[in-house]
Amino acid sequence: MILSDLLGSDALEADGRRVGGVVDVRLEISGAPAQLLAETVVTGVLVSPRSRVSTWGYERRGENGPVVIARLQRWLHRGSFLVSWDDVELVDEGRVVFRDGYERHDPMLPPAPKT
Q1: Is the pLDDT of residue 91 over 80?
Q2: What is the pTM of this model?
C-alpha cells in the first residue's frame, strides 16, 4: 500500500455510511534507520467530514501560520477526527472502512516532549 491509496478515500462506517474523507495519515517511526530511511508504521487516519483536501498541518497544536489560512482550514475541517489504524477493517480502492464500534479521537497532535 502507498499513501495515495488512502488520501482522498471515502471513510465509511461498517454499515457503509460515509463519515468523511481521509485527508491525512499518522505515522510512527519504528526502530533505527535501515539504509536510507527509518521504518515507519501507519498508526491512524485523519478524517474530515466536509473536505478531502489536506489540512496543511493546521491540525497541529500551536501551528503558527497566516491567520486567514488557519481560520479557513479550521472552518473547512471542523468536526475532523482521528481513527486508530487498529480500527480500520478494510482498505479498498477509494474507500477505508472502519470496524463496528470504532472510536473517534482528537485529531490534534499531542504536544512535543520538553527537552
Answers
A1: yes
A2: 0.75
Q: Order across the sheet with 10-12: list the strands.
A: 81-84, 37-48, 18-34, 10-12, 95-98, 88-92
In angstroms, the CA 107 to CA 70 distance is 15
Distances (CA, A) of 67 to 22, 56, 63, 71, 78: 24, 13, 10, 6, 16
Question: Which amino acid makes up residue 108?
Answer: M
- Can you say how many angstroms the Cα of residue 112 is from the centroid of all Cα atoms in its chain? 18
CA 64 to mean position of chain CA atoms: 20
**42-76 confidence digits (pLDDT tens):** 899 999 887 656 655 555 555 566 666 666 666 56
Are the beta carbons of 105 and 81 closer than 8 angstroms?
yes
CATH topology of domain 3-98: SH3 type barrels. (2.30.30)
Domain ranges across the chain = 3-98
